[in-house]
Amino acid sequence: MAKQEDLFKKVIAHAKEYGYIFQSSEIYDGLSAVYDYAQNGVELKKNIRDYWWKAMVQLNDNIVGIDAAILMHPTTWKASGHIDAFNDPLIDNKDSKKRYRADVLIEDYCLKIEKKIEKEITKAAKRFGESFNKEEFITTNQRVLTYQEKINTILARMGKSLEKENLADLKLLIEELEIADPLSGSKNWTEVKQFNLMFGTKLGANTATAMHLYLRPETAQGIFVNFANVQKTGRMKIPFGIAQTGKAFRNEIVARQFIFRMREFEQMEMQYFVKPGTEIEWYEKWKEKRLNWHKSLGLGEDNYRFHNHDKLAHYANAAADIEFNFPFGFKELEGIHSRTDFDLKAHEEHSGKKLRFFDPKTNANYVPYVVETSVGLDRLFLAIFSKALQNEELEDGSSRVVLRLPSILAPTKVAILPLLKKDGLPELAKSIMNDLMYNFQTMYDEKDAIGRRYRRQDANGTPFCITIDHQSLEDNTVTIRHRDSMKQERISINEITLIVSKEISFKKWIHNFRV
Ligand code: ATP
User: Fold this and answer.
1) Domain limits at 434?
2) For residues 210 and 17, what is the distance between their CA atoms, to the nearest angstrom?
3) How far apart are alpha carbons 343 and 355 in whole angstroms?
4) How many domains would you assign to the chain?
5) Average pLDDT of span 454-471
6) What does DSSP assign to residue 240?
7) Do 447 and 422 reside in the same domain of the chain?
8) Does ligand 1 come within 6 angstroms of the Cβ of 379?
9) pLDDT tens digit sequence for 57-106
């Protein structure tokens, strides 16, 4: 556990030191759970967003994008159920005065049991060596089975209590499990209360007549209210999808895990409108497609797993999370929800406008069902950044810090490094950079010895370094150094664009994501 915490601290420190993420309003001591993306972070975030957008919109001729406003008519949130039901169960510790989400305290308790299972597996794998069969072990080992049953029982009871809003039972469960405040160790808890997560604001200058609005807590509703507009103007036929990326706001009760849980964050959502009765088939397909999309980034297949929901939201008839192995364990990265016709029907009722699809084959109207894929851009950033950050032992006994970002996502693709600051090398280096910058984000660096500059680019995540030396002046060749293998090759200046383009080709990266 201590190791994991250290790793997470390193991730946060590295993100600041290399210009990826800063605390918001840092000179005023920051604002809790709000962060700014710095010069490299903004590029990485944009590249992740583009990778998602291309895979969802460009590669699917039946999915289109929109960009709806953050402020929406307040009835939107009545219809969607957010005013009545967008609550989290909070609990305070009377001694430490710290506030927690009751469900998260219970989930973290289960995570600890899961860690015990992992320990048993590691021990057994060592004991049995090559003949170890993990699948067989976890389905037959008595200790593992007991742990797993305990987790299942706890989560099932929590799911039921949340569903029935039985807050007293949540408190009872916390007491029965003897869960203590993780910071102070105290078990002196208040009652569990519901807390609405929406931020309110006012529209208009006159306080008496100002309209009470909310900052959107999810981007999805901007898609639902535009369903008919997009369907008609785009002449879309079912099944079709509408995709959107944009800011969402939640007044989270506890937000202590860097950009994992923020109060202002960005979502990338896609609503897929299908014929009623086909939604589970599409739900399964989208689960698989989205998992493959994540895996295409090459961060390691074992870092992803599905978690099927026991407790379904008021709008869903099936739901699962894609969980990622963050530095603090497996946690939700993306949600895939079969949302039925709940949202469109609710908006029909509240607006009095028809939100239907006319099927020319049957000559009848229906309200489509919706399968949604919803991923947090910031959470995805954290997943990618934290797995990419590695401390590597080298053959010569030294070590290096390397940020192995997927090259397609790296903020800077090519660093241009003149070996010396004289003899015409900077001039040639700059002319190479001036040409490359039309195609790629580049960076020029002439300070320090070349070895140090390579290390700096490794830690920055730059996949290619181009070094210009005296030979370059004579024969138009340069050295290209690859971040991951540290391999160096002598190539012609004319070849740089082709080599880099090939490596960061969208087609190459997305190859195992099929729609
Ligand atoms: P959680 O259970 O972690 O609060 P959620 O189930 O409420 O998340 P959804 O409403 O399904 O999340 O939102 C979809 C995605 O948006 C999540 O999978 C997550 O990646 C992202 N997300 C949600 N809340 C936050 C937040 N406060 N900060 C950053 N990302 C978030």
Assistant:
1) 412-513
2) 44
3) 10
4) 2
5) 98
6) E
7) yes
8) yes
9) 999 999 999 999 999 999 999 999 999 888 899 999 999 999 999 999 99
1, 280, 406 from 19: Cα distances, Å: 28, 43, 18
Instruction: Say if strands 414-418 and 442-444 run parallel, antiparallel, or are unpaired.
Output: parallel
- Residue 515 pLDDT greater than 70, yes or no: no
Q: Which residues pair with 214 in a beta bridge?
A: 200
Q: Which domain CATH number covers 422? A: 3.40.50.800
What is the chain's alpha carbon radius of gyration, rounded to the nearest angstrom? Answer: 26
Q: Are residues 387 and 457 in the same domain?
A: no
Does the residue 25 lie in any domain?
A: no
If one residue of 374, 378, 380, 385 were mutated to test the ligand 1 pocket, choosing by the most ligand atoms within 8 A of its CB, it would be: 374
Which protein residue's CA is at the shortest distance from atom 21 of ligand 1? 376
- Burial, 107: exposed, middle or buried (Cβ in 10 Å; 0-12, 13-18, 19+)? middle
- Ligand 1 proximity of 250 Cβ (cutoff 6 Å): yes
Atom in ligand 1 nearest the alpha carbon of residue 261: 28
Q: Are residues 346 and 434 located together in one domain of the fold?
A: no
Partners of residue 326 on adjacent β-strands: 329
**Pair 418, 429: CB distance under 8 Å:** yes
Looking at the DSSP bridge assignments, the partners of residue 268 are 245, 375
- DSSP code of 301? G
Task: Tell me the two tokens of residue 317.
Answer: 């008839």
Q: Which atom of ligand 1 is nearest to the CA of 263?
A: 27
User: Whose alpha carbon is nearest atom 29 of ligand 1?
Assistant: 261
| Residue-wise pLDDT tens digits, 214-246 | 999 999 999 999 999 999 999 999 999 999 999
Containing 299, the helix (H) or strand (E) segment is none
Spatial distance between the Cα atoms of 313 and 300, rounded to a whole number of angstroms: 30
Q: Is residue 235 part of a domain?
A: yes
Which atom, in ligand 1's list, is nearest to the CA of 260? 29
Q: How far is the CA of 508 from the centre of ligand 1 (A)?
A: 30
| Protein residue with its CA nearest to atom 3 in ligand 1 | 332
245 C-beta closer than 6 A to ligand 1: no
Please work out whether the CB of residue 333 comes within 6 Å of at least one atom of ligand 1.
Answer: yes
Comparing CA positions, the residue from 470, 441, 477, 437 lying closest to residue 457 is 441
Residue nearest (by alpha carbon) to ligand 1 atom 26: 261
pTM of the model: 0.89
Query: Are the beta carbons of 413 and 464 closer than 8 angstroms?
Result: yes
Considering only 134-138, 281-285, 509-513, which range has the smallest mean pLDDT?
Answer: 509-513
Nearest CA to ligand 1 atom 2: 332
pLDDT of residue 163: 82
Q: What is the mean pLDDT of the chain?
A: 94
Q: Ligand 1: does its nearest atom lie under 6 Å from the Cβ of 375? A: yes
**pLDDT mean over 116-139:** 92
Does ligand 1 come within 6 angstroms of the Cβ of 331? no
* Reported confidence tier of residue 512, pLDDT bands at 50, 70, 90: low
